[in-house]
Amino acid sequence: MASLLSTAWVIAQVATVSGLTFNVPSSPPSNSSAQLSDAPVGVSFEFFAFPGYWNDVPSTSTCLQNLKDLSGTWPPIRIGGTTQDRATYDASSSQQVTYTVANAGDAPSTLTFGPSFMSLAGTYAGQVTIGFNRRLNNLANTVAAASKAVNEINSLHAIELGNEPNFFSGSDPIAQGSSWTASADYASEVTWQDAVCGNLSASNLISAGVFFGTSPMSIAGLTAVEGQANSYVRQYCSHNYPQSKSTANLANLMSHSGIASQIKPFAKEVAAALAKNKPHVFGETNSATQGGGGISPTYGAGLWLLDYVMQALIMGTETLYFHHGTIGNCQYCWWGKYSMGSPYFGAYFATMALAGANKIAPLDDQTTGYAAYAIYKDDKPIRVLLYNSDYYTSGSRPSQTFTLTGLSGSTVSAKRLTAAASTSRVDAGQSPTVAGQTFENGSCKIQGQSTVESATVSGGKATFTLQASEALLVTL
């Protein structure tokens, strides 16, 4: 698609505060990330809703294709969530999934799924992680489902055995009449890993843990008792939702320093996984539990997503899977049947920033609202991502200047992520833009002409202006 070259945003001066300067190292510094995966930004689909996203929501294929067009790799997907622990495999069913609900926006309390559920998952060309039931304590049923998944999903990456066992209770069948504790879960996980992988003659298959948060159950605790069962583990998995309906605060969510503080407890989880020579993933994550509090559909949540991805990768996480729940009742979803979600713009921009990259390094100290990241390929800087996380809704819009040093050449180009306000929502008629472009409601097709900015490099320096609640991707 054709592009427009502009310097208008770069040279804009609107209530600018004192500038920041960051040197761009010519090679990855010691605080760089580990080797990046080809597609670190993934998508999670609620178990019962997965066939609906695949069969009935046209935007699904296009939104995933858009991300693949940036990175060259299909984004990994995960199929799971609360309803995986309500689901029973029915090998004789001709239906992908069977359930009843009183209202279309509800999740079912019980459901069955047939072999064609796995066949449908097998149509995806990217990596697939799928979750099965442990809560109901029907090991034979889960083994049968896992066996079918292995046979039907050529790109199967991992299998989960239960979802967020933090929330299991002593009354659930898996507890077998006893109290449900962290130690009980760890023992159960290891037993099920051994049984499932033993029956399948498989190793390196299980996405283990699948814990909400870091306490009372933790990857550090689980890895301490895995023993030989660690050979069955593909990855260790955490779930993370920074906010909830009762704590929702968009300014705090999108704050650069706030993100650093929020994910800090997961550093021990990452370290525990790496100590077992296994990667760590956020297998399910999003802005607020169940999309509550009104913040999840906003542009600010998209900015949170962008910065959260970068900080998590530097911390050592391999992949992040952003959850998509009940179709038509999903505040944090990137897309729906009829409308786009503002957070998709953050996912798209993050994927653009990381496309083809090997490493990413922070240039700031995560203590302010302003972020700078150097992005490397073949140990050479190829891009710099800048982020002004100041919250903005109306009135005079402050801005911040960022000066980059250590640059070569005479000019650099840039693409901007922006919106009218932190609270902008596509479904309210205030779509964000990525380099001037948007995504069509109902199809996810890219709309508009790309606007590429430029800046002059003088003496190895270039300066950029970012208004509050903006991000800029500079190509070197």
TrEMBL record:
SUPFAM superfamilies: (Trans)glycosidases. Residues 372-473 form the Beta-glucuronidase C-terminal domain. Glycans are attached at residues 31, 199, 465. It comes from the Eukaryota. Residues 1-19 form the signal peptide. InterPro entries: GH, GH79_Enzymes, GlcAase_C, Glyco_hydro_b. Disulfide bonds join 63-444, 330-333. Keywords: Signal. This is 4-O-alpha-L-rhamnosyl-beta-D-glucuronidase. It comes from Fusarium oxysporum. The lineage of its organism: Eukaryota, Fungi, Dikarya, Ascomycota, Pezizomycotina.
